[in-house]
Each structure stands twice: as C-alpha cells, then as structure tokens.
Amino acid sequence: MFLLNTHPDHRSPLDLIDADTLGLEASEGVERHLRYRDNNAETPLVSLPGLAAATGVAAIHVKDEGQRLGLGSFKALGGAYAVIRLVLEEATARLGQVVEMERLHSPAVRQIAQGMTFACATDGNHGRSVAQGAQLVGARSAIFVHAGVSDERVAAIARFGAEMIRVDGSYDDSVKEATRISEERGWTIVSDTSWPGYERIPGLVMQGYTALIREALRQIPEPPSHVFVQAGVGGIAAAVAGHLAIAFGERRPLFIVVDPARAACLFETARAGHPVVVPHGEPTIMAMLECYEPSRIAWRILSRAADAFMTVDEEDAVSVMRRLADPAAGDPAIVSGESGGVGLAGFLRAAASSEMKAALSMGPQSRILVISTEGATDAGRYRELVGVSPTEVLSRGAA
C-alpha cells in the first residue's frame, strides 16, 4: 500500500516545541553528551553502488546502526540518553546548581540516582537502552515485555540488571501495564511513544536519535534526494524527518515512512488524517515495529515532514535481510535484523513500481538514504531467516 501525504499540515513548519526538540542546537547537545559515553563511535554509512545500479538510481547509502554503543540498535541513542538527562535534571533540582554530564558519576549524583527507578515497555531494543542507562547511573530499571518478545532479547536486557516483567498480550498492552504499575510505585516511565499529557520524555528519546542523522549528513558525499525510514510508533521516523526539515528547509529530501503491513498504524493514521489504533491481527516478523497505535508527537511531526507513507509485507522484510547478507557485486555485506532493513525494503518496493517511482519523482539522479536500525539482536532468529549466522555474513566482506 502507498499514499502521498495529503494532510493540511503537510510541509508546514514544525510546532515550536518539536523544532526545539529536534533542532540543530539540541542535536549538538546530544553529540556532546555522547562524548562522555563508553563505546561511543560514529556508526558507518555504507554505500551500495551495485544495488544502486540494479535499481536505476544514482546512489544508495545505508546508515548501519548494528554496532551503536555496543547495543546493536539505534535505540541505544534514545532510552539511555533520556535516563541520563532525567538524572542530571533531578540532581540539578536537589543540589540547587546546574549539574552537567561531567559530574554524572560523582558521589552526590550517584546517590540521587540510586533512589530512582526507570521503567518502560519494549519489543526489545528500547528496553535494553533504558536498562543500560539506568545501570550507567546506578539507578534501578523495570522493563515490561509482551508475549512476543523472544527469550534471547529478554536475556539481553536482563544482563544490565533490569527487573523483567512479562505481560500477556501485545506491545500496546505492555505500555498500559508499565504505566499503571509505575504510577502505583512512583517509578519514572521512559517511553518511546507518547500520549495526551505525556510528551516530554518521549521527546527526549527522539532527541537522542538525532545524533545518527547528523552523523549521516556529515558522512554522505551529497545530500540525499529520498529518505526511507521504517516506523513502529514513529519515533525514529519523526526524529529523522523533523531534523531534516529543520536542516534543509524547503530543500529537504522527500521522506517516506515505511510500516509493516500487519502493524500499519502510521499508514492508517495518514489515511485517516488523525491518530488511529489498528486492530491486532497475525504478528509480524518485523518484531521491533509491531505497534498498533502511533506516538502522538511522532504523528504531529510526520503530518508535516513526511511526504508519503507505505507498507511492506513479511516476505519483503526477509528478502532484504538476505539481500544485505548476500549483496550485489561490489557491495559490502550488512547484518540487518528483522526490522533493520525495512526502510530499504520500502525503497525496493517503490523502485519496482512505475506508479510509485513517478509519484516520488525517483529516477537515475536519485540519491537514496536508509537506516539499518538494528543488527542481529536475536542471532538465532537471524540464522533461521537468513540461513547463515551473523558472524558468517560479516566474514564475507565485499561480494
């Protein structure tokens, strides 16, 4: 499914609060914060000239988030960043002086953090980031996971000392349960989705994501003409689209949001023109994107900054994992998890459709940017779907 953005707000300026959250000054602050983080390094921007030639465009670049901060996902930039910001703010309030990042591990700040508990619901990657952030500052974390989260992903979160709480039902059910219990116990919810009355913390999570698009714009030889980004609740798509709108203004690239067909909450929201909850059906293999209700902040941004919305099917997600693992001649192999290559899957579907190509003005001069949002965060599942292990893929080098 494919549709152009016909919302009345399309291409209008972002709300001031969103422009402040995702703007240049805020993103520079995120990068200053990252300089104090262990394992901090720019993730690679990978060129795929072979695939570009095969699909009739000038260039394809993939921002590979598979090694971000040792967590294997772009989510490492969001949850942990928000936790650390919240601890510094609490310390500022209690100590009566501005507490900056360089004092994060001081005894006074650590004592304050030890009395805080951070909670969230997760499909896997966001919870890992929140748990890591809590461990870094000496706080507690409680992570709520729904029935579809694999045991391997649960174990990857628990290794950061998190209390793991299983919830029957879907991701959205786990969000509700995390909120209920946190309100009862005085825990701080660090969610990557927003709802009426709860926007600032999800805004901080999204603010953390702006680091990856700033890196990509420094790394890319020429600005992209088209950007395809996958969406669950919409946080990463909105963060990237919003930052691009601010950075480029009227010259910004076309931005396309890609949903799993089985959990297309942003596509259906775009079709309706307002946030909608889509019904739960058969689970999607794109587990990190299996969300049935969009973030209100994300939709507010995407209604302005996205140009089109589309869906991809289950076989598209698996096909792109295999294509990245066994690439076109001359292209390097990339390990991308079940949800990681969905933006590229959207581009490939659009490139194969004359109608979509025309609607997006996509042709031989187009320069495509996508984000591989995760590596093999469940190595067993990756091997099952791709047929080889992540280690074997990385050992291949260029095709």
Automatic annotation (TrEMBL):
Gene3D superfamilies according to UniProt: 3.40.50.1100
Record-annotated Tryptophan synthase beta chain-like PALP domain positions: 39-371
GO terms of molecular function: diaminopropionate ammonia-lyase activity
Keyword list, A-Z: Lyase, Pyridoxal phosphate
Entries under PANTHER family matching the protein: DIAMINOPROPIONATE AMMONIA-LYASE, PTHR42937
Listed NCBIfam families: diampropi_NH3ly (TIGR01747), PRK08206.1 (NF006058)
Protein name (record): Diaminopropionate ammonia-lyase
